C-alpha cells in the first residue's frame, strides 16, 4: 500500500489545452496551469514512492478543492494517473495496473487544497 498527499489546487489536464506550432507541425499541449501543477507534484513525490508498481491496484483519490464549484472527477483522475506514471509511482495507467478508482471523490477545503492518494494492491482481477 502506498499513501501520498499532493498539496496544491488539483488541476485537470484536459481543460484549456494550448495549440502550439513547431515548424510545419502543430501540437496540442496541456495548459500552463496544469504544467505548473504537474511540476509541483513531481517535486513532492519522493524517491521512496517511485516504485513503478506493475501489479493490479485500486487507486483511491480524495480531492480537496478550494471552491465548491463543479469539478469533473474523471478528468482529475486522468491527470493524477498521468502524474503518477511520469513520477514513476506506477508503471502505466492502463486497466491491468489501475484496476479501479473505488472510493474516489471531491470534497471542499478552502484552506488546504490537495489530493490524498491511496494505492492498494488488488488480488482478484
TrEMBL record:
A single BP term in Gene Ontology: DNA recombination
Alphabetical list of Gene3D superfamilies matching this protein: Holliday junction resolvase RusA
MF-aspect GO terms: magnesium ion binding
UniProt cross-references to SUPFAM superfamilies, sorted A to Z: Holliday junction resolvase RusA (SSF103084)
UniProt-listed Pfam families: RusA
Name of this chain's protein: RusA family crossover junction endodeoxyribonuclease
Naturally occurring in which organism (per UniProt): Criibacterium bergeronii
